[in-house]
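Reply to dn_fold:

You asked what the input looked like. This is it:
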Amino acid sequence: MKVKLKFIFPILLLSPVLLVQGQMNNFRYKREIAGINKPWHQIIIPDEMYAKVKSDFSDIRIYGINASNDTTEAPFLLEVENTFMEELRVPFKIINQVYAKGVYWYTFESTSKENINEIKLHFENDNFDWKVNLEASLDGLNWSTITEEYRILSIHNSKTNYEFTNIYFSESAFHYYRLSIKSIINPKLSSAYLSNQISKQGNYKYYNNYISNRVENKSEKQSITFIDFKQVLPISGLQIAVKNKIDFYRPIEIQCLVDSFETPKGWQYVYSNLYQGVISSFEQGDFHFKTQLTRQLKLIINNDDNELLTFNKIEPYGAMHKLIIRFSNTDAQYFLVYGNSNALFPEYDLKQFPDKIPHGLSTLLTGNEIMFKDKIIEIEKPLFNNVKGLWILMSVIILILGWFTFRMLKSTK
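and this is what came back:
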């Protein structure tokens, strides 16, 4: 029996090695993680990774290997640092509506102590262009100007359905607000909302290293601008600065390239809509949408019979993606692995306890990308090249065990 145990024990020692290889070899790429000196760290996903991960990032894992060749999986949370917006509506009542000398006056009384930084207006009338003033007071007697000559606009026709009737201003906490509209007709204010727009600013990276090409589709009266990046990137929005000094409003559509295929007539490209709205001289040209991994954007502007818009700048930007990681063994050698089309989202207990994550995490660096066909870790070298090799090894083991069994039975006779 001693002979059998001595032979089987080395075979059992191979199991951790096989487990490491089985887990990590399901992925195509790896990056070594350096600088781990505490249980909690974060990693900013490198731009070069985005072209090689699934669009939902479900094929990212972090594996560690200790000195005993045991493997462990480090749990993590993926955090996308987009701007977070929350609207808190403030209760109020309209206490006065007056017309005098070509001006319509509306007085709002806030019934809450909440701060206010926006008033949304809705009118029964369409197609107007008015200048408004907004004042505020604590006692209803002494008034201070918040904003004046603020332009609100409505355009409705067969081609356009556009309104800009929100008044934005610095956060304030007055009891009364008074709105005045210069108009020769009754604006017919149908409703209004006082609110506090609370935002948590996101963390974005601007991608200005691109090639742009604009073409004009005269039959459709459109200008189309293609924005080509050198690699796949996470794009969350566009900032567009228009050079024209005129008043304008144009329907705008932003698309991203999602697929391409070759046909006998040449390459065909498939685009997905990211944003559809209006670009105008009344609002800032910042168009935000759900983050999309892409290597090309397509910007379509409908000009009708108007002159083309020219741009001072177009700045694509993308939300930073980072991994919040908990390491159980800071002495182990850890790898960030990715690239597995069959991978599903990992399920970690970590997501149930976000309040346990410490603040101010230090950022770790990752090494160069290495494909798994270029093995550099000794314990990851394949034990078998194929299934045939496995059967050969199993046959050898069976023959050796049979030979030792035969020797033992013979010695007992």
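The chain has two helices and 26 strands.
Hope that clears it up.
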